[in-house]
Structure formats: structure tokens, C-alpha cells
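Recall the central idea of this unit: under ordinary conditions, the amino acid sequence of a chain determines the structure it adopts. In this exercise we apply that idea directly, starting from the sequence alone.
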Amino acid sequence: MATIVIEKDTRSRLRKTGTKDQTYDDIINRLLDISIKSPTDFTESAEQERR
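Accordingly, the structure predicted from this sequence is:
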């Protein structure tokens, strides 16, 4: 039940901020891509610094 309330709040905030062109799922997928890519990018940059 709490998830549904959060989704409704998030959707209404997204509408207010002008992201009408993107769907809610598109935004979630983009955030997931960022969170998945970030740790590997960080690891790669840390390895380069060690060299």
C-alpha cells in the first residue's frame, strides 16, 4: 500500500516538474542504469589511479 502512495506522489511531482515527455518507467529505468553503471565506473577509475 505504501508503494502505491509513493508512486502517486512521485508521478504528480514528475508532472509538475515538466517531465511529461517521459513515462514514469523510462525515468526509473534511467535511474537503474545510472546506479548499475556507477559502481563499475568508480571501480575502473580507482584501478586506473592505482597504476
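Residues 2-50 form one domain.
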